[in-house]
Amino acid sequence: MCGISGVYAPGREAARLAYFALYALQHRGQESAGIAAADGGTIRSHKEMGLIGAIFDEESLGALSGHIAVGHTRYSTTGSSMVVNAQPLLERTEIGDFAFVHNGNLTNTDDLRESLAPTTTLLASSDSEVMAKVLVEAPGSMLERIQHVLGVAQGAYSVVLITKDELYAFRDPWGVRPLCLGTYGDGGYVVASESCALATVGAQYVREIEAGEVIRITAAGLESHRGPNQTAKPALCMFEYIYFARPDSTLNGRSIYMARYAMGRQLAKEHPVEADVVMAVPDSAVPGGIGYAAEADLPYVEGLIKNRYIGRTFISPDQKMRSRGVQLKFNPVVENLRGQRVIVVDDSIVRGTTTPRIVALLRESGAKEVHLRITSPPIKHPCYLGVDMATYDELIAANYTIEQIREKTGADSLGYLSLSGLVASTGREHGEMCLGCLTGTYPNAPAAHETRELVG
Questions:
Q1: Domains in the chain, start-ordered, CATH in brackets?
Q2: What φ, ψ does residue 194 adopt, rounded to 5°?
Q3: Which residues are catalytic, by number?
Q4: Each residue of 34-92: pLDDT tens digit?
Q5: CB–CB of 210/230 below 8 Å?
C-alpha cells in the first residue's frame, strides 16, 4: 500500500515536487518516508521514520538539489518498521548509482535472495532491498537490468528508479499495484501511485503505466518499453477501488468516488431493508453510504465523526483507554442516531474486531436497529501481494457464515455486496482485477515456502 512518486522536471527543484506528491499519498503509508534527488552528477537522499511533514523542512529539502527525484511513503508488509527499511534505497553499480522506491510485495523473495552472489550484503529485511540487489547484479544497461527483473520477480511491484540523469518507472506484468504518468511544464514528467498526486503538483494526467511496461525518461524525452512477460493478464488489486485509493483519484478513467458510489447503489439493490437513515463508517465508505441512501431514497446522515489525528501512533494508549476501543477514533452524533433504524455502510470486514465495537457504540448512542451493509464481498483468503490482510485463522469470513458474522457483530442484519456487483461498479471486466482475497485465485501464486510467515 506504499505511495511512490517520481519527478523529471528540467529547471525545477524536483525534490520539492516529490515532497508535495508524497503529501497527497500520505494515506498510503505513515511509517516512514524519504526522497532522493539527482542533479546530473550526484544522488542525494534523506529519509526518516514518521510522517512527511515531520521529516522534511526547508533545510532538508534544500539539500536535495536536482531536476530528478523519487519519493516514498511506507506501509510495511515485509520487513519490519524501522529506518533501515525506509526508502528510497541507494545502490551502487559499475554503470552508476541509482535510487529505488517500491510499492508491492514479492512472492518469490526467498528464491531471489538465494540467487544473489554469496558476497552480497543485505542491510535491511525487506523484499524491496532484494529486488534492488537483483538489479545491481543483473548484466547490461539499466533498461536491460529492469527487463531482467521483470522476467524473474514474481508478485506485485510498482517501482520508480533514478540514476544521476534518468528516471525509470515500471510495473509488474500483472499490474497489481497502480502507477500513473503525467506531464509537467515544458518537457517534464511526474509518475505517482495515484492521479491525486499529479493534480497536487500541477501535473497533467496522461495515462496509467501499463502492466509490464517500462518508462524511461531522459533529456531526449520519454520512451516506452515492454518487459519479457507478455502473457500475463492484468490484475489490478480490487482494494484500490474499495479502500486504498483517495476518492479524488481515477484509475483507467474511472473516478474512485463514483466507483464507490456505484457500489453503494448496487448494495442497496441487493440488500434492501426497512430503515430510517443511512450512515457510513468514515472515511472510505462515505461515497458508498451516499450511494446506498440515494438508491434507497433515505436520508444520509453523519453518525460517526472521525478523529483524523488518530492513526498509526508511537504513543500507545494505556489499557483503560484501549478498552474504549472505537471511541478513540470515532465519536457518535447522538442526535442523528437516537431512536433511529440505522443502515451502516462500511467498506469491509476483515478480522471482525472493530465492527462489533462500532455496532455497540451506535446502540449505546440510542440507535433502535443497526443494519450492516458492506461494499465488498466477504474476504475469505489472505493477500500475498502487499495488503496487510491477516491469515486464514484471523479472517472472520474464512471461518464463519454470514449469519454467524452477523451474530458476532451484534447487528440486526448483514449484507455484503456481490462479486459481480463489485466488478461492475469499477467499470472493469472480471478478468482485469486481482480478486484473490475474495476468490482464492491469485494472478501469480507464491511458492509454498514463501507463505510460512504470511501476515499480509
A1: 3-232 (3.60.20.10), 255-308+318-451 (3.40.50.2020)
A2: -135, 155
A3: 2
A4: 999 999 999 999 999 999 999 999 999 999 999 999 999 987 655 445 677 899 999 99
A5: no
- Residue 312 pLDDT > 70: no
Quote the distance between the C-alpha of residue 65 and its chain's center: 29
- By DSSP bridging, strand 369-374 and strand 413-416 are parallel
The DSSP string of 123-185 is -S-SHHHHHHHHHHHS-SSHHHHHHHHHHH--EEEEEEEE-SS-EEEEE-TT--S--EEEEET
CB–CB of 192/227 below 8 Å?
no
In this prediction the pTM is 0.90
* Alpha-carbon distances of 340 from 275, 334, 337, 382, rounded to whole Å: 8, 10, 5, 36
User: What CA–CA distance (Å, rounded) separates 49 from 86?
Assistant: 7
Residue 105 CB-density burial (10 A; 0-12 exposed, 13-18 middle, 19+ buried): buried
- Report residue 18 as a C-alpha cell: 516529490
pLDDT in the model for residue 228: 78
Pick the closest to residue 108 from 450, 383, 455, 451 (CA basis): 450
Q: Model confidence over 114-123: pLDDT tens digits?
A: 999 999 988 8
Query: What is the predicted pLDDT for the residue at 383?
Result: 86
Measured CA to CA, the distance from residue 24 to residue 257 in angstroms comes to 16
Burial of 413 (0-12, 13-18, 19+ CB in 10 A): middle
- Residue 234: partners with Cβ closer than 8 Å, 6 or more residues away: 174, 175, 211, 431, 432, 433
pLDDT in tens, 389-417: 678 999 999 999 999 999 999 999 999 99
